[in-house]
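Work package 3, deliverable 3.1, input record:
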Amino acid sequence: LGGTISRALQQMSNATIIDEKVLNECLNEISRALLQSDVQFKLVRDMQTNIKKIVNLDDLAVGHNKRKIIQQAIFNELCKMLDPGKPSFTPKKGKTCVVMFVGLQGSGKTTTCTKYAYYHQKKGWKPALVCADTFRAGAFDQLKQNATKAKIPFYGSYTESDPVKIAVEGVERFKKENCDLIIVDTSGRHKQEAALFEEMRQVSEATKPDLVIFVMDSSIGQAAFDQAQAFKQSVAVGAVIVTKMDGHAKGGGALSAVAATKSPVIFIGTGEHMDEFEVFDVKPFVSRLLGMGDLSGFMDKIHEVVPMDQQPELLQKLSEGNFTLRIMYEQFQNILKMGPIGQVFSMLPRFSAELMPKGREKESQAKIKRYMTMMDSMTNEELDSSNPKLMNDSRILRIARGSGRPVREVMEMLEEYKRLAKIWSKMKGLKIPKKGEMSAL
Ligand code: GDP
Ligand code: MG
């Protein structure tokens, strides 16, 4: 996808005269990419129409400005589509506030409830969690475990089957205890959909939440609009949280959720852990949607810290997309030294999240060293091949023996290699911009 957009923009920058044909071609190509990012068809069409209105080709000055103007117009248009025009209700510290979470089962509600509570607790709030999911077995246990880990008070029941009753009891109790952020987690699945929405309506009516947050899995694809709309029709959704942004999905469904609920995205979930939760920021999100991801910062970093004579080689390897074990070895060396290239790779969030999870740097370093020991027992052929089939059982056994590490660990290292290769391959065909060129976006 990154390649597609880069190619589209590249095509545009190569054309000396940007006429309507080029603009259309470019818009079509970017639209295809946005559809692949799960942006709703109707929204993509709206974007196209608006861009054509904004970009008046005759008015554009001659020269390379045109390209910048079109890029900027697309970027701005997408940012605008994520802005419903009014901010969401913001709870105030010290003042009782009830926040109800809704969303389909598996969207990440329970996880996100805890993240939301934890986020505020760190800022000095007194949050509390209420489990009004009486549908799923184990729902209360899950919330209890999360809450206990974060030392957040919780309320729920193993026996009561009426979600409205529990929600009301929980909210009442925590109001008495002077909690200022009372979070109500709800069920996401029912035998009949209509029953779920009726239940949401009842819980909302009984607890009178100040804010209802719709939780959406970034990977639900084109279903986002209908899902968000269905919830909005039964409860007064006032904000959106998009989860699993650490996965492959670019989260274009967020545009649909904003359009359907007329509410802003307020946070994104970026992992299963409690602190993998970020305040939503429009610009990086749109960059990612356009397939430019974190590349703009990444490229700037390359230009900034990698010695000039090493830049072409690194960029060449990146754009070829072939991630061999030898490249991995070199990157490990760099990361351990935290040399310039190591710094660069720590800029790629997914790359560093895989290799060096936050808070586990020591462990990760030891792991990387173990991996390098095993790789020292590899042949040149193995190190330079990008054919995953090459590493058969007998080669794995030989490497394990040679490095004195268990076979299981060699296999684990090769799995890690595959994961990193996948991330690396995203940059294949990447047009390497000149210094500062990406900053426009
Ligand atoms: P619920 O059914 O809506 O309450 O969803 P859960 O909170 O139980 O989450 C469903 C699954 O998604 C669990 O395995 C969570 O760990 C996982 N999950 C939730 N949020 C995220 C996220 O931001 N990133 C990742 N990778 N997993 C998440
Ligand atoms: Mg749940």
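The first helix runs from residue 2 to 14.
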